[in-house]
Design brief:
Oligomer: single chain
Distance between the termini: 206 Å
Number of helices: 11
Strand content: under 5%
Number of strands: 2
Radius of gyration: 63 Å
Structural class: mainly alpha
Shape: rod-shaped
Strand order of the largest sheet: 1-2
C-alpha cells in the first residue's frame, strides 16, 4: 500500500500554480522588483518560456538576468547546434552573454535565408526569361518599329533635362565654329563630254525624243530653149531625206518608251508628208513669139483699135 501511494502521489499546489503560470506566461507583465525567496519557484516557469517572453520579462524585471543565463544557453543550442558544439568542444570561446549571442545567431540565420531567397529568385527569373525567349508568339498585327521621336510601343521618350539640352547646344555651336564643313568629292560637278559623230544614225529606241525630218533645199534648174522642156520641167523630188535627232528633252519630262516598229512607222509617215509639202519653185512661162501671129478674131480687133 505504501509503494502504490508513493507512485500515485498527488501533485502539490505549487506545481499546479507553476503549470498555470507557464500556460498564461504571455499575460504576466512583471514578477515585481524584489524577488526575495521566490527565485527557485520562478526557474521552472522561465525554463518553458520563449525568447520573446524572456526578453520582455527581463526588461520589466531586471533582477531576472541572473536566472535567465541557462535559459538563453538552451535557446542558443536549439537555434544553432553546430555553433553550440564548437563552443562546447572548445574550438570557440564561450560568449560572456548568452542573450547577446542568441541574437547574433538569429541575425546570421536571417542573412542565410535572405541569400538563399535571392539565389532562388534570380534562378527563377532566368528560367522565366529563357522560357519567354523560346516561346512562340502569334499575333495578327505588325511588329512596332522603334522611332527616334517615339520609343517602343509608340510612347514618347522622357523629356531631356536642362543639362542635356545645354550640352547639345554647346556641341552644335562648337562644330559650327571650329569644324567647318569639308568639301567632299560628291559636291564636284563634272562637265558633260560633247562628242558628236559625223553621220549620226537615227536611234532605234528613243526615250523622251521626237525626230525632226528636214528636206533639202531645191536647186535651181537651167532654162531650156524649147517650150516643151520649159512647160514640163519641174524640180526633181528629193532622193534622200536626212533626219537629225532633237536635243534631249528636259529632265523633268517623263520618258516615253516606243517600240522599233512604231518608230519606223512614224519616220516613214513624217518623211513622206514633209516631202509632199515641201515648197516648189514657181514656174516661169516664156512667151512663144510665134503664138502672137495667130490671135483670135476679137482680140485682133481690140489690138487694132488701140
Amino acid at each position: 500500500m505504501d509503494r502504490s501511494r508513493r507512485n500515485c502521489a498527488v501533485p502539490t499546489l505549487v506545481s499546479y500554480a507553476q503549470r498555470a503560470a507557464v500556460k498564461h506566461l504571455d499575460f504576466i507583465d512583471s514578477f515585481g522588483e524584489d524577488l526575495g525567496g521566490r527565485v527557485d519557484l520562478l526557474a521552472p516557469i522561465l525554463a518553458h518560456g520563449t525568447a520573446e517572453q524572456l526578453f520582455r520579462l527581463e526588461r520589466q524585471t531586471p533582477a531576472l538576468a541572473a536566472l535567465t543565463q541557462e535559459m538563453w544557453k538552451a535557446l542558443c543550442q536549439k537555434e544553432d547546434v553546430v555553433d553550440f558544439l564548437k563552443i562546447d568542444s572548445g574550438e570557440e570561446l564561450e560568449p560572456e552573454c548568452w542573450k547577446n549571442h542568441f541574437f547574433v545567431l538569429k541575425e546570421r540565420a536571417r542573412q542565410k535565408l535572405e541569400n538563399v531567397r535571392v539565389q532562388i529568385q534570380a534562378r527563377r527569373q532566368g528560367l522565366e526569361k529563357e522560357k519567354k525567349d523560346h516561346q512562340i508568339k502569334v499575333s495578327d498585327r505588325l511588329m512596332a518599329i522603334p522611332d527616334k521621336k517615339s520609343g517602343w510601343g509608340g510612347f514618347a521618350p522622357a523629356p531631356k533635362t536642362l543639362m542635356q539640352q545645354t550640352r547639345r547646344k554647346a556641341t552644335a555651336m562648337q562644330r559650327a565654329t571650329f569644324n567647318p564643313p569639308r568639301h567632299t568629292i560628291h559636291n564636284r560637278v563634272l562637265a558633260p563630254s560633247t562628242v558628236t559623230a559625223i553621220f549620226p544614225a537615227p536611234p532605234l529606241n528613243v526615250h523622251g525624243q521626237r525626230p525632226i525630218v528636214r528636206a533639202p533645199a531645191a536647186r535651181p534648174q537651167p532654162h531650156s530653149s524649147t517650150s516643151t522642156s520649159s512647160s514640163t520641167s519641174t524640180s526633181p523630188p528629193p532622193d534622200r531625206v536626212q533626219a537629225a535627232p532633237l536635243a534631249p528633252a528636259a529632265s523633268n519630262k517623263r520618258p516615253i518608251e516606243l517600240s522599233s516598229a512604231h518608230i519606223e512607222k512614224l519616220m516613214s509617215g513624217s518623211a513622206g508628208q514633209l516631202v509632199s509639202e515641201s515648197p516648189r519653185p514657181a514656174k516661169r512661162i516664156k512667151k512663144d513669139p510665134m503664138a502672137a501671129l495667130f490671135l483670135p478674131k476679137g482680140r485682133s480687133r481690140v489690138g487694132a483699135q488701140r
